[in-house]
Amino acid sequence: MQTKQELESTLKDLADTLGSIIAKKNPDILKNKIEELDATTVHPDFWSNQEKAQSIMRELGRLRNEIEEIQKFSDMITQLRSDLVDIEDAELLQLLEADISNLKKSIDNLELKVFLSGKYDSGDAILSIHAGQGGTEAADWAEMLLRMYSRYADSLGWQTKVIHKLMGTEAGISTVTIEVQGDYAYGYLKKEHGTHRLVRNSPFNSAGLRQTSFAGVEVMPLVSGDIDIEIKPEDIEFSATRSSGPGGQNVNKVSTAVRLVHKPTGISVSSSESRSQAANRETAMNMLRSKLLLLEEEKLEKEKSELKGEHKEASWGNQIRNYVMQPYQLVKDLRTNVETSDVDSVLDGGLEAFIQAQVRLA
């Protein structure tokens, strides 16, 4: 248990941290942005574009929430400092310490958003998982990763929706794409992009031999149709097939699953979860826009790095994290060196330490 003096020092540090956040966030700028967005909502045709209108309303909610949090945390620091002056009882000090600890976690989470200042960081994400080589073992690993990210999203109150899924031949998932909706979903998840390695005793052979499996995770910002990215109709190769279930069996009697190939870049996207081909095509087009946008931004970043003489590692195919279940228990991020022996917790969605360290590193 901390002493009264230590708690006073902790509160001072929290006040300094919050002051730094306020300086960077600048509530006056946030309030001006809210006023600008509020002005658009009173236009008679505001809801004519449902997707854009909903995006604006979510942005308004996010900005208002940040301003409310800043004020709330400031008031809490003032109140806790006042309470601490008159408290001498050890039991009451322990309760106050718990309140200060919870406040620190909240301010740490708010501070993390200061690092997420990219154009699309505050928005939604598209996350894809692809089983690597290894057949059934790799497909099972891909399904484990899907569960891990879904549970992480649930813990933050985010919504997830499967856009496309191709089941493994015997078990697991060959590839899956999900849409993740939530404040700063892309900002938090973008550094999960890369190769994830699993080491465990295989449950798929009678000898239980140790097996190494790989899966690739791909993360993109979710962009809508009003983003200015030129896609010529003649550059798109369109095909429609029946959605398939486990083992490749068709689950739809009509061809609703959509696959688009962008001929100039070779980028392909698929959407199959809707029963409407038109809806799947619209989703696939948004995914294609997202991939082209990310490709263009990566190209610009590479050009900047070359001008500065810096070396930038290729993001795709770069192993970022190891998950070892046997002969010992360890999850280790190879970029930040954050590690834990609680593998089960991580696979159950406990990614906070890994994601927060990577966000702060960036």
- Please identify the structural class as seen in this structure: alpha+beta
Mean pLDDT equals 87
Query: Radius of gyration over alpha carbons?
Result: 24 Å
Find the count of extended strands (DSSP E, 2+ residues): 11
User: What separation lies between the terminal Cα atoms?
Assistant: 34 Å
Report the portion of residues in β strands: 15-25%
- Share of helical residues: 40-55%
Strand arrangement across the biggest beta sheet: 2-3-1-5-4-9-10-11
Uncertain segments:
246-253, 310-317
Q: Given the structure, what is the number of helices?
A: 9
Secondary-structure element pattern, one letter each: HHHHEHEEHEEEEEHEEEHH
Q: Give a quick account of the main beta sheet: strands, pairing sense, barrel closure.
A: 8 strands, mixed
Mass-distribution shape: flat
